[in-house]
Amino acid sequence: MNRPTISERCFDVTNALFLALLMMVTIYPIIYITFASVSDAARLMAFNGILWRPLGFSLDAYASVFENPMILKGYGNTFFVVLTGLAFNILLTSLGAYALSRKSLKYRKQLMLFIVFTMFFSGGLIPFYLTVKGVGLANTLWALIIPQAINTFNLILMKTAFEAIPDALEESAKMDGANDFVILFRIILPLSMPVIAVMLLYYGVSHWNSWFHALIFLQDRSMYPLQLVLREILLQGEASAMAVGASVTDAGMLSVTLKYATIIVATVPILLVYPFLQKYFVKGALIGAIKG
């Protein structure tokens, strides 16, 4: 076995140092937010510099967040939107991707042109709102699910993955009497689990972090998803701090740590899902990217 040369060793060391630095730059904001959320508000306000440990220890910010009765309701609404939305997303995206990946589909190129067009141009916010309201979805959680049922980029990604599956499998299944639905659900999808995992992650994160559409379409506060509830808490905390003087009052000091606590509450659940999908992520995102 050949020993690495000096240049190869230098490259390995430089590469390792660069990746370590990149990892620190990526991880430090999460560390900072975590430590700041459990720090003493007064000490945090007076602190300047890099935060490597909590400044004291206080859970007042988390207590303030979870004292809001809307938190559990917001979690319930968000889980409904995420789970129901994922079912619609995967079903409709896979149906569209399968149809567009079939070489026998007439006007396939023209259809793809119209679909890609929507990635760069839209009708605007007001026509979008009027359309959703016109079909009776306004002030319902379905307004957060159905209009976002298919993402164009995800559709193209899944279509590319389906095209990478050998045509011989489809041909042999048709010889055995299988129709398109059988081929899709019993052959194509089981062989496309990496890209399915990527779709679950992309769509799931999108639903979890979504708040703008909820702000537009929902008037009933009992339907607010978690992100909108946390936004409301944060704005109320900032408003109370401004009203009573943030530099000298407990309410004002609490608002400093409140924003970090809301970030942790909103982020941790989706972060816990990512490790289970990580092993599929790179393979699924790049599948079909290189063709022979």
UniProtKB/TrEMBL annotation:
<feature type="transmembrane region" description="Helical">
    <location>
        <begin position="16"/>
        <end position="38"/>
    </location>
</feature>
<feature type="domain" description="ABC transmembrane type-1">
    <location>
        <begin position="75"/>
        <end position="277"/>
    </location>
</feature>
<keyword id="KW-0812">Transmembrane</keyword>
<comment type="similarity">
    <text>Belongs to the binding-protein-dependent transport system permease family.</text>
</comment>
<feature type="transmembrane region" description="Helical">
    <location>
        <begin position="111"/>
        <end position="130"/>
    </location>
</feature>
<keyword id="KW-1133">Transmembrane helix</keyword>
<feature type="transmembrane region" description="Helical">
    <location>
        <begin position="258"/>
        <end position="277"/>
    </location>
</feature>
<keyword id="KW-1003">Cell membrane</keyword>
<dbReference type="InterPro" id="IPR035906">
    <property type="entry name" value="MetI-like_sf"/>
</dbReference>
<dbReference type="Pfam" id="PF00528">
    <property type="entry name" value="BPD_transp_1"/>
</dbReference>
<feature type="transmembrane region" description="Helical">
    <location>
        <begin position="183"/>
        <end position="205"/>
    </location>
</feature>
<protein>
    <submittedName>
        <fullName>Sugar ABC transporter permease</fullName>
    </submittedName>
</protein>
<feature type="transmembrane region" description="Helical">
    <location>
        <begin position="142"/>
        <end position="162"/>
    </location>
</feature>
<keyword id="KW-0472">Membrane</keyword>
<keyword id="KW-0813">Transport</keyword>
<dbReference type="InterPro" id="IPR000515">
    <property type="entry name" value="MetI-like"/>
</dbReference>
<feature type="transmembrane region" description="Helical">
    <location>
        <begin position="78"/>
        <end position="99"/>
    </location>
</feature>
<dbReference type="GO" id="GO:0005886">
    <property type="term" value="C:plasma membrane"/>
</dbReference>
<dbReference type="GO" id="GO:0055085">
    <property type="term" value="P:transmembrane transport"/>
</dbReference>
